[in-house]
Recover the amino acids of this structure.
């Protein structure tokens, strides 16, 4: 499989701020690739570097082998779905979708026919004559998608496209986007700060932090073998024990993380190869299928434990404020590099 | 676990006079609106609309050429007079000047406004705002008279052209009919330059305000979809900023249509609508004809706005 987008030691500085700091990354053709990170981590800047709205301060950025640094956005074979959709308010939906074809000089009847097709594809066939302002957020989202896809880009860039949608619609669009990507077979580069979103849709995820990439891996690998404390904490929930606390609890200074669902009250785990930690139950949060128990250990560290709720009922292993010893299998400890 | 005790607040105190007034207004939104709008609306209806209506009515009154008196007999004679060649020339002269000034102002203002919105940051932005508005703080008459000195044959403009070796170009320009004259001070070109100078800020500010509302994201989306800079300008920036251009052009257009001072001080002889109105009501006392002349710009602007609307200039609003 060929490489669609390649970052080679790419940096983007604003004065003294390193928005993107020496990133190297290969995105394969046909891949659903997510850039995940908190705000200000450099993920959006990286996407904008691919789109051409930003130029690298140093390094090389190649799109299908061609050096892209210095090329304006209109000369790149990528298209973008913007976070706020960026639909043209003075055009109706059909002309918005047909915009890219109009620029290429495609005749009006032909570009309108193809725009209709795209609108059908995103299930908005009836909406061509409306103004974007007359559409809901989810519909605008689809128009933005149709407008970007009509140019048949080999790479589609999506900048937190689902961020403004409510939860139900977001989940529905996640499924649709994934299906669409599989059907079209083109590369999707998807920026999000929502780890659940990145995990559920992506073939691979790059986790960004402070302008650098912490880890690039498939979702399962990120979850089960997080390379750093940041990844462990950001991707799924994790109790991170740094070196000092680790030596107190388990007798070695290697930092590690334990997922909340791997922790049990000590009595529920068999004795062999188990780490036991005494603590005090602080709080219980009922979440429906599961309950989360906040337990204070070693005097100051708050550890989360998640237990399934039998028949939807939380059966607390202890009273709030009472002592509670936690346990987890040693193989549930994820060793962390930094 | 900590336990914190918050003090229990006392029972709600009785409402004061102002608070009760506030409650009354809150319960009667109509009263609130009346207080807010009453006075300004009255002022607007009487002073603005009322005077315009009076003007319109007066334009149908009869003026007796012999007795020099106005009678309330209704007639269309004033409007027929407008169409007489001498008067119609005044309308055409004013109209073409106003169009030229508006066009030039728009062409000059757009790039400047664009720079102010997209590129100027920090102190530069402040500097441009002040620089655009500063000339409006100085007296209009002083500025216009200053131009007569600048444009005079021994003035700095001629001096500069001569030193640049362009004196011949100015002389040649002065020979062109409709542009030229004896010197820049007495030419249409000079008058056009002064008009453009005086009204340009009124074009820059509305365009700047309109461009300020065009999100950067739309330009990026356009270029992302393959548009060159020129295409983005043509298909996105211009249509979205056009209401600002129209607003600015209403200022430059109507201000030029109504001005009577610049035509008297700079440029060749020949009356403008403004100076015609001034003469008609001031020296001659022919209020009805003056009123008819005043209706002309109102009608022209109304036609202009209707046309702009038909062309979709306000679709982006």
């Amino acid at each position: 499989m060929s490489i669609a987008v390649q970052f080679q030691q790419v940096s983007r500085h604003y004065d003294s701020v390193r928005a993107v700091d020496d990133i190297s990354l290969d995105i394969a053709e046909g891949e659903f690739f997510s850039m995940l990170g908190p705000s200000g981590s450099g993920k959006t800047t990286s996407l904008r570097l691919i789109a051409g709205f930003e130029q690298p301060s140093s390094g090389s950025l190649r799109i299908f082998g061609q050096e892209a640094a210095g090329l304006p956005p209109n000369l790149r074979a990528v298209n973008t779905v913007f976070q706020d959709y960026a639909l043209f308010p003075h055009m109706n939906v059909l002309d918005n979708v047909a915009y890219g074809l109009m620029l290429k000089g495609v005749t009006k009847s032909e570009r309108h026919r193809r725009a209709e097709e795209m609108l059908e594809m995103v299930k908005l066939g009836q909406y061509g004559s409306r103004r974007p302002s007359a559409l809901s957020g989810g519909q605008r989202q689809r128009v933005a998608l149709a407008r970007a896809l009509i140019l048949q880009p080999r790479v589609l860039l999506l900048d937190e496209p689902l961020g403004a949608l409510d939860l139900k619609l977001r989940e529905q669009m996640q499924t649709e986007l994934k299906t669409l990507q599989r059907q079209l077979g083109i590369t999707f580069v998807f920026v999000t700060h929502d780890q659940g979103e990145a995990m559920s849709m992506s073939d691979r995820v790059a986790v960004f932090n402070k302008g650098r990439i912490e880890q690039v891996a498939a979702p399962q690998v990120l979850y089960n073998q997080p390379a750093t404390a940041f990844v462990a904490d950001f991707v799924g929930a994790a109790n991170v024990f740094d070196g000092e606390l680790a030596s107190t609890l388990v007798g070695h200074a290697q930092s590690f993380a334990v997922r909340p669902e791997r922790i049990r009250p000590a009595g529920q785990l068999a004795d062999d190869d188990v780490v036991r930690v005494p603590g005090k139950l602080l709080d219980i949060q009922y979440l429906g299928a599961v309950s989360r128990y906040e337990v204070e250990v070693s005097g100051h560290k708050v550890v989360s434990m998640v237990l399934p709720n039998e028949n939807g009922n939380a059966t607390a292993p202890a009273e709030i404020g009472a002592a509670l010893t936690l346990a987890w299998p040693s193989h549930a400890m994820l060793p962390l590099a930094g | 676990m900590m336990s914190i005790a918050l003090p229990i607040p006392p029972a709600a105190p009785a409402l004061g006079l102002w608070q009760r007034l506030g409650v009354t207004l809150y319960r009667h939104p109509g009263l609130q609106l009346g207080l807010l709008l009453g006075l300004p609306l009255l002022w607007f209806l009487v002073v603005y609309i009322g005077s315009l209506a009076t003007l319109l009515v007066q334009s149908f009154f009869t003026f007796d050429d012999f007795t020099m008196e106005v009678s309330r007999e209704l007639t269309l004679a004033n409007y027929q007079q407008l169409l007489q060649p001498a008067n119609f020339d005044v309308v055409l002269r004013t109209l073409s000047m106003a169009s030229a000034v508006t066009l030039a102002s728009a062409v000059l203002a757009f790039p400047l406004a664009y720079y102010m919105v997209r590129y100027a940051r920090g102190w530069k932005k402040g500097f441009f705002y002040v620089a655009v508005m500063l000339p409006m703080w100085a007296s209009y008459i002083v500025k216009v008279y200053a131009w007569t000195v600048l444009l005079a044959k021994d003035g700095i403009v001629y001096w500069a052209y001569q030193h640049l070796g362009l004196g011949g170009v100015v002389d040649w320009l002065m020979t062109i009919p409709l542009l030229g004259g004896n010197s820049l001070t007495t030419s249409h070109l000079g008058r056009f330059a002064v008009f453009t100078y005086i009204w340009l800020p009124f074009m820059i500010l509305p365009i700047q305000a309109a461009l300020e509302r065009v999100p950067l994201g739309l330009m990026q989306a356009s270029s992302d979809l393959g548009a060159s800079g020129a295409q983005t300008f043509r298909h996105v920036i211009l249509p979205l900023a056009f209401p600002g251009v129209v607003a600015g052009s209403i200022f430059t257009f109507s201000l030029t249509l109504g001005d009577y001072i610049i035509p008297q001080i700079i440029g060749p002889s020949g009356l403008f609508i403004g100076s015609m109105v001034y003469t008609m009501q001031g020296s001659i006392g022919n209020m009805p004809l003056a009123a008819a002349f005043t209706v002309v710009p109102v009608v022209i602007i109304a036609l202009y706005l209707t046309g702009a609307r038909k062309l979709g200039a306000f679709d982006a609003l």
User: Anything to note?
Assistant: The longest strand of chain A covers residues 274-286. The CA atoms of residues 281 and 295 of chain A lie 4 Å apart.
